[in-house]
Automatic annotation (TrEMBL):
Residues 31-50 bind DNA. Coiled coil: none annotated. Residues 8-68 form the HTH tetR-type domain. InterPro entries: BetI_C, Homeodomain-like_sf, HTH-type_TetR-like_transc_reg, HTH_TetR, Tet_transcr_reg_TetR-rel_C_sf. It comes from Actinoplanes campanulatus. Pfam families: TetR_C_6, TetR_N. Keywords: DNA-binding, Repressor, Transcription, Transcription regulation. The lineage of its organism: Bacteria, Bacillati, Actinomycetota, Actinomycetes, Micromonosporales. It comes from the Bacteria. This is HTH tetR-type domain-containing protein.
């Protein structure tokens, strides 16, 4: 009787291999042949699960998204039942930044994917939708007169910090300090929660 193969498990195995190649050797090394060698399977098997490089790259980014979602959910859970908007944003963004070896590896893959989609617009459709959703979510937490623009700016700051962290220009401590300073400015005149009671910040 033929052995039953878990298709999703096999695709994830190949995507993990792709991410290792991209993180260690750069985007230019990502090819069906190199990914197959890293995964320990044949190039034909890789093509069986991913017809094109676009499909393989998109699936790998989906794996990174799932990992980030798990990290964010776990971090937010530790904030308790009613975190302040500032604490929530600080935790979410801090969790998404590449501040340790595991998140740096995923960050290099995400950065490689962004570079890949820069010259292949059709491959970036999912990213545009995700960006719009993220901006909308952040805008709903900000007390600014123009929350959507402020949210777009905060998201751009997060991406910029990620690039500088991956390149070694900033240390994790510097990145956290920059994020904290920016959040302080955004929430400078916002009410804050203290013991369940909304109080205004002193002038």
């Amino acid at each position: 009787m033929p052995k039953k193969v878990d298709r999703q498990k096999r695709r994830t195995q190949i995507a993990d291999a792709l991410m290792r190649v991209a993180a260690e050797q750069g985007l230019e090394a990502v090819s069906l042949r190199h990914v197959a060698a890293e995964a320990g399977v044949s190039a034909g098997m890789v093509q069986h699960y991913f017809r094109t490089k676009d499909e393989m790259m998109t699936f790998a980014l989906d794996v990174v998204r799932e990992r980030n979602q798990i990290r964010v959910t776990d971090a937010v859970t530790h904030l308790g039942t009613a975190p302040s908007p500032r604490d929530l944003l600080q935790t979410i963004i801090g969790t998404l930044l590449p501040l340790d070896e595991v998140t740096r590896a995923d960050g290099r893959v995400a950065l490689a994917f962004l570079a890949y989609t820069a010259v292949r617009p059709p491959a970036s459709a999912a990213l545009r939708e995700e960006t719009d959703q993220m901006v909308g979510f952040i805008a709903g937490l900000l007390p600014c007169p123009d929350p959507e623009n402020a949210a777009a700016g905060l998201l751009a700051l997060m991406e910029g910090l990620g690039v500088y962290l991956l390149g070694g220009q900033y240390t994790p401590e510097q990145a956290r300090g920059i994020l904290d300073s920016h959040l302080d400015r955004l929430f400078a005149s916002a009410p804050e929660h203290t013991g369940g009671i909304v109080t205004a910040r002193p002038a």
